[in-house]
Design a protein that fits this description.
By secondary structure, this protein is of the alpha+beta class. Helix content is 27%, strand content 22%. A hairpin with a 3-residue loop joins strand 6 (88-93) and strand 7 (97-102). The protein binds a DNA duplex through residues 1-3, 6, 52, 67-73, 86-87, 89, 102-107, 143-145, 149, 152, 154, 161-164, 208, 232-233, 250-253.
DNA sequence: AAGAATGTTATGTA
DNA sequence: CTACATAACATTCT
């Protein structure tokens, strides 16, 4: 569930649903408070996504911070919402809909200082207009590190996870183990542009799609999940059946087409 | 029922 | 200082 594009969707949704309203949420321990306007209620100014992190900015300068991690999930229900399931962490009650959060990796209230520290250590987010492309590119392009490692490092590029790492390196025919510094300068497009494109498609279609521009619309509505990706979690390419290698890189399973990714 | 999974951080090691 | 490994934490699905 949580790659960067998902988080941006949530930010957008929550922003339009709750900005300007008192919202009961996010007590310091991450337990939920379910009364909008109750003792925990503060007015929400805006919701922002930075990489895979969500920032809820409140009028009293505090920031609610949510990171979904592997399992975190917002469930949406039409009001009146059913009783909370499991260990609820946050409950956002809107006019028509209620969002309930379970299983986040992080869920806490930060002061200015803390939230600044957090956002400061996040890298460039391909989905943000204020991203410093040059910084991200240099960080990877000058590094002796494997590209596949840099792409998972949130302090370099924030928002790409294991799926996007696999898919965008495949699309460029770059082997994940290749050192950033060794990539040819004249490669058709550096990973950044592909990241922008793929994450953007993710937001647009509410799912991860890694096919070419013309095909996007068609494929997104028709294809089953297993066919929206080229090599992620596959032993053979979906297009030509060529064998796909699997190994561990930066503590996650990496994938590469044996024949064409070098 | 064990194990894997779209993630991050802190800590230890070389 | 960098890179890599490991553990910890959250939960659901096969």
């Amino acid at each position: 569930m949580p790659e960067g594009h998902t988080i941006h969707q949530l930010a957008r949704d929550h922003q339009s649903c709750f900005a300007g309203r008192p919202v009961g949420m996010l007590s310091p321990q991450g337990r939920f408070a379910d009364q909008a306007g109750g003792s925990e209620g503060r007015v929400l100014i805006s919701v922002e996504a930075l990489g895979k992190h969500l920032f809820y900015r409140f009028d009293d300068k505090l920031t609610g911070h949510v990171h979904l991690g592997l399992f975190g999930k917002f469930r949406v229900q039409k009001n009146p919402a059913a009783n909370p399931r499991g260990a609820g962490r946050v409950r956002l009650i809107g006019n028509e809909r209620t969002f309930a959060l379970n299983g986040p990796n992080q869920c806490e209230l930060l002061d200015c200082q803390q939230s600044h520290v957090l956002s400061g250590r996040l890298g460039q987010d391909p989905l943000r207009r204020d991203a410093d492309v040059k910084a991200a590119r240099e960080r990877i392009g000058r590094s002796k590190r494997a590209v596949g490692s840099g792409l998972l490092d949130q302090s370099v590029i924030a928002g790409t996870g294991n799926i996007y790492r696999s898919e965008l390196l495949f699309l460029q025919r770059i082997h994940p183990e290749r050192r950033g510094a060794d990539m040819s300068r004249d490669a058709s497009l550096p990973p950044w542009e592909w990241a922008v494109r793929l994450l953007g498609a993710g937001v647009r279609y509410h799912r991860i799609i890694t096919v070419t521009r013309e095909e996007e619309g068609r494929l997104s509505s028709r294809l089953p999940t297993s066919e929206r990706l080229h090599i992620y979690k596959k032993s053979h390419r979906s297009c030509c059946g060529g064998p796909v290698d699997q190994w561990s890189l930066a503590a996650r399973t990496a994938y590469a087409c044996q024949a064409c990714q070098q």
